[in-house]
Amino acid sequence: MAEKILIIDDDLDTLRLVGMMLQKQGYQIIAASNGQQGLDLAFAEIPSLILLDVMMPQMDGYEVARNLRSNPRTVNIPILMFTAKSQLDDKVTGFEAGADDYLTKPTHPAELQAHVRALLARASKAKVNPPTGPASDKPAHVIGVLGARGGLGATTVALNLASATEQISKTVVIMAEFRPGQGTLVEDLGLPKPKGLTELLNMPVKEITRDIIKEKISKHKSGLRILCASPQPREASLQDNAQHFLAILSKMTFMAQYLVVDLGCGLTSLNQKLIPSFDEILVVTEPFTNPLIHTRHLIDNLNALGADESKVRLAVNYRIRSEAQLSAPQVQEKIQYPIEVTFTPAPELLMQAIRVQTTAFLAQTESLTNQQYTSLANKIIGRAKQTA
Predict the structure, then answer these.
(1) In the chain, N or C: fewer CB atoms in 10 Å?
(2) Long-range CB contacts (< 8 A, 24+ apart) of 21-26?
(3) Domain check: are 117 and 173 in the same one?
(4) pLDDT category, 135, cuts 50, 70, 90?
(5) What 3-state DSSP class applies to 4?
(6) Is the dihedral of CA 333, 339, 345, 351 positive or negative?
C-alpha cells in the first residue's frame, strides 16, 4: 500500500503542485487548506507523514504541530514544515513546536522528495526498533474514567477496571491518577513513589520522556503499574499544567497495551483538553435523580467535544444499599442512554481490599464484583482488538 502524505497549506496552488509531484512518486496524497481541517484529517487518516505550511490564517502551522504532538494518535507522525519563512528564529520555533524537518519555499522538487524519503525511512526504522524501548510500537487503548460529579467512586472503578484488564489481557496495563492533590492509591495500595505525578508536573515539558515516566511509576504486587497522584491538597493547582498532562499521556500511550486514566469528576478545563485523546470514556454515575441529571448533561457535553456514542460508555455504581435508588431499567428510562455496566454494592469487600492493600477485583476472585469487572474488561479488550 502506498504511503499516505497529508499536505496542509492554505495556498491552493501549492497544494496542487506539491500533491501532483508526490503522487508521481507513488505516494497517496490527502490535502487540507487550513489548520483545523488538517488536524481533523490527521486524526482520522493517521498519515505516514505531514507536510505542513506555517503561515495560515486562524491556526498557524506551529499551533497545528503542537496539537499533533499532544495527541497520542499523531504524536509520532513525522512533520516536515514547508514554508516561505526562512529566518533562524522561525526554524527554531518550528522545531520546538514538534517539526522533524524544515524546508524553505521555493525548493527544488528533488530536494523535497529527498527530505520526504529520508523522514519516511527514519520513521519506518523507529517503528521496528523504537529508541526508548516502549512495551509496544502500537499505541495503547486509552480509557478515561470520569465521574459525573464528586464522590461517585470513579477512582475505585478506574482502579478495578485496570486491575481486571491487566489480569485478563496478560499485557502491560498502566493506571494514571490525573488528580493532583487528591491521590488515594498510595495509601490504599501501599505503593512507593507517592509524588510520581507531581514530579513530572514540576519539570519542563521537554524533559518528560518515557524513561523518566517509567522511573515515576509504581508497580503493585499484582503487576499493575500506577502513576500516583499526591494527596497534598496544595498540589491541586498543578492541574493547570495542561501541556504537561498531554505530554505524559502521549508518552504513556507507547508504554503499555492498555492505559486507564482516572480523570476525577466533571469537565474541568484540563479534562476538556484531554478528551480527544481517549479511545473510550467511561462515565460513572449513581442511581439517584440528581446525579443522573448531571450525567445526561455531561454526556451531551462530551458529544459536543467530539466524543460521540461510539466512545462514551455509562457505568452505574450502586455504592450503597438503599431502597431509594432507581433500578437499572428506571435509570435507562430517565437518562435515555445505554448502560454499559452496573456495579452492585460491596462496601465490605472494598474495605477488605484496602486492609490487604489490593484491588477489590483481586481480593475475592469469586465475588459478583469480580464478575462485573471481568465482563467490563472483556468488552473493552474485545473493542480494542477490533480497532487494532
Answers:
(1) N
(2) 21/109, 21/112, 21/113, 22/113, 22/116, 25/113, 25/116, 26/2
(3) no
(4) very low
(5) strand
(6) negative
193 vs 174: CA distance, rounded Å: 15
Q: What is the pLDDT of residues 143-186, one digit of tens each?
A: 999 999 999 999 999 999 999 999 999 999 999 999 999 999 99
Is residue 83 pLDDT above 80, yes or no? no
Residue 278 lies in a domain: yes
Q: Which domain holds residue 383?
A: 141-387
DSSP 217-236: -EE-TTS-EEEPPP--GGGG
Percent of the chain with pLDDT over 70: 95
Q: What are phi and psi of 319, to 5 degrees?
A: -75, -30
308 shares a domain with 187: yes
- Cell numbers found for residue 105: 519555499
Indicate whether 185 belongs to any domain: yes
CATH code, 213 = 3.40.50.300
Query: How many domains in the chain?
Result: 2
Instruction: Verify that 186 and 119 share a domain, yes or no.
Output: no
**Better-scored residue on pLDDT, 260 or 113:** 260
What strands, in cross-sheet order, belong to the sheet with 49-52?
28-32, 4-8, 49-52, 79-83, 101-104
| pLDDT at residue 129, rounded to an integer | 39
What's the pLDDT tens digit per position in 175-184?
Answer: 999 999 999 9
Is residue 135, in this structure, part of any structural domain at all? no
Instruction: For residues 231 and 350, state if they share a domain.
Output: yes
Residues 108, 75 share a domain: yes
CA distances from 298 to 83, 205, 273, 309 (A): 41, 30, 15, 12
- Report the length, in residues, of the chain: 388
User: Which of these ranges, 125-134, 239-248, 301-310, has the smallest mean pLDDT?
Assistant: 125-134
Query: Contact 367/346 with Cβ under 8 angstroms?
Result: yes
**Strands 341-343 and 312-317: what pairing?**
parallel
pTM as predicted: 0.68
Between CA 304 and CA 307 the distance in angstroms is 7
Please check whether residues 106 and 169 belong to one and the same domain.
no
- Regarding whether 124 and 165 lie in a shared domain, the answer is no
Residues 238-250: pLDDT tens digits?
Answer: 999 998 999 899 8
